Amino acid sequence: MTGNYIACHHCGQLHERSALVSGQRASCVRCGTILWSQGVLNSSAWLALVLTSLIAFIIANVMPVGTISAVGLKSSSTFLDAVAATWRAGYPSVAIMCFATGFLMPLLDILILAWLLAFSRKGQRAPGLNQLSRWLHVVRPWAMVPVFMLGALVAIVKLADMASLTPGAGLWAYAGLTFLLTGLSKLNSERIWLLAEQDGAVKNLPVTIDQAHVPLDCEICGQVTMSADSEGHCQRCHHHVHFRKPAHRTRTLAILLTAIILYFPANLYPVMVNTTVLGGTSSHTILGGILELWNLGSWDLALIVFIASFVVPLTKIVILGILIGRSAHGSRDTMMRYTRMYQTVELIGQWSMLDVFVVILLTSLVSFGPLMSVTPAIGAAAFGMVVVVTMIATMNFDIRKGWDEVDDDIEQPGYQPAATAPTFS
């Protein structure tokens, strides 16, 4: 059987690729995951959004996020000022994490999209398409502009009882950039290849299904490659692909244990230290910061920080622990629940970085020497590492292995493809 196929990234089910109309999407017949969709925007429209995002990004990082006035002095800060202040305060690990997630990764994301779309809209294959689409796949989860935007709002509330703060043009640019990047989040590497197909720049290569070969699913371009081995290279973008991630449970468990170890100092040690000429020095843990927001009357932001700093990390750790320790054989309904749990972890992964962004922004804004200052503490470094490590653990886990152990009437022997189930979005 020869044709164009697509495999579900969450259960491994092979599907025939059917033509969709604008606004329609195709979902997996086995686990319900959206396989691909026919959007209403073409490459030119996406490029316009990307270029608008680039302009907003430049403004957001050149103009101050805010200016505070206290004890007759003023202090303003951009995001890069906050990173530099954190480095000077003796916490290069925190500075590097924030620079990468708040500046470098979002910038690379935007520039890669702009380059690829500029050629695709003209029906041309972009130079470096294979490598750049792989970079886009790697960069995307680590671009955390929306998290920083929320962190800036929390920092403003925290400063309410310490000084007078005036929001800067950078803050408004970040607000606009947050909405733009949220829209662009749908434009992943597979979507880029799909747009290139529609523009005639690339083709989806036909595949012959036979029982002597296994389908290798490329997470970069969505191409299916049949191979006699459990690993190989995508026939279209040449990315190294596996039938299933090898030793995924062992690797995920080792990384998860590292996150659990880091979680204790992240919550027990202070994340920042406040110094004032009248009040002396006071240390704040994550829980202390939440209580401070609550006492200031900002119960809504206190709840958001509590969810981001406590609920989200614990949820990720608990869910990954359940997935690693699940029974060897499960029903389809059980695997559906596990798949939704895994998708939840993928979705919420980066939001725990909120507190770290709050700390670096306060470090830069509240810098009046011995009169008033905020400096990072060891808890911020540990908490940032918890976020990074849990995200890496999630990326190493392969939920498809659980589906391989499910015996249902949907998966056919010999990896025979199923018809997709189109629905309107």
From TrEMBL:
The portions of this protein that span the membrane are 46-73, 93-117, 138-157, 169-187, 253-272, 301-324, 345-368, 374-393
Task: State where it is primarily located.
Answer: membrane
Q: InterPro entries attached here?
A: PqiA-like, PqiA-PqiB_transport
Q: Name one GO cellular component term.
A: plasma membrane
Q: Is the Cytoplasm keyword given for this protein?
A: no
Any idea which UniProt keywords this protein has?
Answer: Cell inner membrane, Cell membrane, Membrane, Transmembrane, Transmembrane helix
Compartments, as annotated in UniProt: Cell inner membrane
Q: What is this protein called?
A: Paraquat-inducible protein A
Q: Which organism is it from?
A: Advenella mimigardefordensis (strain DSM 17166 / LMG 22922 / DPN7)
The primary gene name is: pqiA
